[in-house]
Design a protein that fits this description.
The chain has 336 residues and is of the alpha/beta class. The chain has ten helices and ten strands.
């Protein structure tokens, strides 16, 4: 079964062709990161306009690379939530028009489910049930997958997501956008034990996250150093911050795995590309006898191959969209 995936939830316009939810035939991404870097983050209006300019060509290129004509497709899958509403609507409306013109089923796909599905493309043996950590710029979730479309939230962030905290801390350190990549590089030169940073907990919700206080602690350290003329080693601070975030994410995930008796662990989302988090998860899984699956770096960020992969399983579950399909800036991953 051949599915065209379309992704436009933030600042990447992407299209891909995937066969049977597991075999990637093409993947094309038009990234806007260089343009948004000027502003230190994504500007929603600019993102929407760039999606409109790029989406038609990106879809054509995905079809060309896969040597597929539209009449050979079986369905169109599109990210419809969550994300920047203007950006989402570009992809959703294009997908609606394309599916109508080609008489193809339209499959709405939740963005966070797609990130988990990136692992299906890289690991043919991976099947639910498993416990997944989804960590990205806007989301930090621990979810239990009973099946490909059956999600239960175990923990989530109460304020800043892990990726958002990385970006804000990086900006305070004077690093470019997207901050997570540059903190990861700088952390390789620093001592992760140099700074003692807070590890916030949410009372009554042992698996929920709170990264706002940790981010603020880093910003305060930098402000105090500048005000007092103290020299502060930013490589050490980056390493300490990255280590603390990785420790928090890993600790929550492993405790949840113990409670829910999960032997299979999956990492997903942009933050899953972080080398510090990968090391922490690998060590924790090795020590506890669990199997860890991580997507390749090329599939950690936003892409359409993961949308098509999850779209396949949503299609099999009977999920369909029609001309009334809308985009939603927020929506629970449990609802799909």
């Amino acid at each position: 079964m051949l599915i065209l995936g379309i992704e436009s939830s933030c600042d990447e316009t992407a299209a891909a062709i995937v066969e049977d939810g597991r075999r990637q035939l093409s993947s094309v991404i038009a990234s806007q990161v260089e343009e948004h870097r000027i502003y230190g983050g994504v500007v929603p209006e600019i993102a929407s306009r760039r999606h409109m300019e790029a989406i038609s060509g990106v879809v054509e290129e995905a079809l060309r690379q896969a040597s597929i004509t539209p009449d050979r497709l079986d369905a169109v899958a599109v990210t419809y939530a969550p994300g920047l509403i203007g950006a989402l609507l570009v992809g959703v409306n294009f997908a609606k028009g394309f599916s109508l013109s080609q008489n193809l089923p339209l499959v709405p796909v939740h963005h966070l489910r797609s990130h988990v599905a990136a692992n299906y493309l890289a690991h043919p043996d991976l099947k639910p049930p498993f416990l997944a950590l989804i960590a990205s710029g806007g989301h930090s979730h621990i979810v239990l997958l009973k099946d490909y479309t059956d999600y239960k939230i175990i923990g989530r962030t109460r304020d800043d997501a892990a990726g958002e905290a990385f970006d804000k801390a990086a900006r305070a350190m004077g690093l470019p956008y997207p901050g997570g990549v540059f903190i990861d590089r700088l952390a390789a030169e620093g001592d992760p034990k140099a700074f003692s940073l807070p590890r916030p907990k949410v009372e009554g919700s042992p698996y929920d996250f709170s990264f706002s206080g940790l981010k603020t602690a880093v910003i305060n350290l930098l402000h105090n150093a500048r005000q007092t003329g103290t020299e502060l080693n930013t490589a050490d601070l980056a390493a300490s911050f990255q280590g603390t975030v990785s420790e928090i994410l890993t600790d929550h995930l492993m405790r949840a795995a113990e409670e829910y008796n999960c032997k299979t662990i999956v990492a997903a989302g942009g933050v899953s590309a972080n080398s510090g988090l990968r090391r922490a998860l690998t060590e924790a899984c090795q020590q506890s006898g669990r199997t860890l699956y991580c997507p390749p770096l090329s599939l950690c960020g936003d892409n359409a191959a993961m949308v098509a992969a999850q779209g396949y399983y949503e299609y099999l579950a009977g999920v369909r969209g029609d001309s009334s399909l809308n985009g939603y800036p927020t929506r629970s991953v449990e609802l799909g």
